[in-house]
Batch of 3 targets.
Target 1
Amino acid sequence: MAEADAFWAQSQAPEFQYQLELRRFVDFLTHRLARGEVSGPAAPYLREVMDFELASFEVQSALSPGHDAAADGSPRRLAFDHAPLQLLRAIRSGALPPYELPCGRFELVMQIRDGDVELSVFDASPAASAAHLPDTASSRSARSVS
């Protein structure tokens, strides 16, 4: 809550369009992370979770009425330093950080397939040559962690 309080304390008039407010909050946290102003057990995961939440919002928006999912639903590729689905499952379960997760270079690909959001994880380390990991999920099991 400290980060939200800091955001609202420095924020100008609130945006009434939640998409713009979300973007402002993510930008605020990104700058604080870059300056080393965010600490605590969740800090190592914050960038990854913010990127995931923002991409989730964009992809879910493409599925909403009035949007052309085929046109708006291009795959989102997200870089992770921790095993993505394991991280998201830990958060979703309510477990508090720090988490014991495999570290490395991972890529999570989020895309719309048959009206659902599909997540696929790839090992992005040089040695893996983008070998696909068997860990995938659909929106029914790994949607958003908010």
Note: Confidence is low (pLDDT under 50) at residues 130-134, 138-146.
Target 2
Amino acid sequence: MNTESTAAAGGAVYVVEDDRAVRESLELLLRLRGFIPKGFASGEEFLDYSALQRPACALLDVRLPGIDGLQLQRELRSRHPGLPTIVITAHGDVSTARTALREGAVDFLEKPIAQTVADARRVVATVRRTGRVLVIGYILRHHPSWQRFVDIARKLGKPLVMRMNLNQQSAGAEWETHKRLMDALPPIVDCGVHYVDMMCLMTRSRPIRVQAIGARLSDEIRPGMYNYGQLQVVFEDGSVGWYEAGWGPMMSETAYFVKDVIGPRGAVSIVAAHAEGRSADIAGHTATNRLRVHHAALREGSFARPDELVDLSDEPDHQGLCDREQAFFLKAIREKVDLSEHLEDAVNSLRIVLAADESVRRGCAVDLRKESSL
């Protein structure tokens, strides 16, 4: 699907979504990006539409009244075999993802990729078997400042000590969003996959053991869930990582944004210019502002080189970062990019955060070398 030329030529995007607010929001976004959107409230309404343009693609919600998104996808494959489809849903699961990919979906995004390692591997196997494109939404991979952060960390020698957290003091609508997210996953899983993914990129070593703690700090979240967690992961090369995440009105904003890596040759840290009271602001979660690079080398009892401050003030904002991620998705489709490593990394980071959740619930360390432990 040549989305770039589709946009330039005023290509059509058919949005099939029964929620009017969501449908109209998607149409507005697509129109602003240069596409010609047309919305439909049901699968039947779209199938009755006979004036399909080319180039075009269809954006299908899974849960629709009457014929559902997957049935619609199957029917479109029969009637319009050259029409690419992208499946979207707020209720994704592995069975739905595998069915959508088998039926020809270009993409089915879910973060994390699944809620068990076995299911994640089944999704990856389906992608490989069908030859479809699947990009996991690990947005930090596309951030130029985080790419530089990883590159500098790799030059610090081994083993690495990686310290990261993202605590969010939330209230009102933000707290309501967090509570809905915790209906499915705790913060160290939902947010943790992003930062653990960065740790895996830095070490390029096999994780072998995970230990974690967690606490339920509010009666407003469902029983059995916890809104604060901290994990520790040990890698085969001796590197260690620490990640902490907490959500809610009770969270402290002291040291809520720690991102640094220490190695034998020195350290690199993200020095973010965050305003107090904004820990739940999603726009600030990917911002870096500056990197501080510390050199460990000594000369006559003093540091041989002063710390360096790398200015990153021209980094993309959150929307710009989303655009970069979509550009990568487009490139993967157009150039048939080999995403094998990308998918394996997604499974690997998921193994770590799910092991952390298991460690919280069992009260003991989890050995990742034993597949049965997950």
Note: Residues 3-137 form a domain with the Rossmann fold fold (CATH 3.40.50.2300).
Target 3
Amino acid sequence: MKTINLLRAITATVMAGAVSSAVAAYAQITRVPAPALANPNRPQADWHPAPDERFSALEFIVKTGDDDLRGDSGAWVTITFPDHSSQKCDLKLRDQDGWGNNSTHTNSPQCILSSPKTFADLKGSEIVLFYEGESSSGWESQDNWDIKEVLVRAQDFSNKKYPCLIHAQGSPLVRLKRKFPETYIVYAKGDFYDDAFDLSQTPNMC
């Protein structure tokens, strides 16, 4: 009888240990974090727009670096398309609030294209960012501006497609400097500006 009771005790102990191990293993499994979701805005390597797909606007997202863009300064882009037509889109008007250090800004309203373009047209376009750094009070220094990151996305609203066109960043990507009164540049279409940066020639992370 004692032998039978001893065997039963051993069996119960082994089974309890097995259950405890199984519970611990299950707990470990349930604690494994879920895989991170991929950025839904990240362009797919195998994505190719249809040749006849048209994009009607561009979205510009700009992040400043360690030097802000003041409220009395302005920024805009000019887009020169492969057919040599061009248009201007404002990013920040001179009467709008300043862009603080290390802040992110999206152009509003978006840059509506004068006529819808294919993605190939947009990829073949020259996109230049211009800036006019102003100082409205005599005691302020002239306004310079650090740009840390720029993201440009094409906008196909009807098909809900917003592919990355340009994505560039650095520390900073570029420092734009106020040149007046030493030099004051006049843009061909009558816009005054101090400095410019060709986004279409920068290394593209899209």
Note: Residues 1-7, 9-41 have pLDDT under 50 and may be disordered.
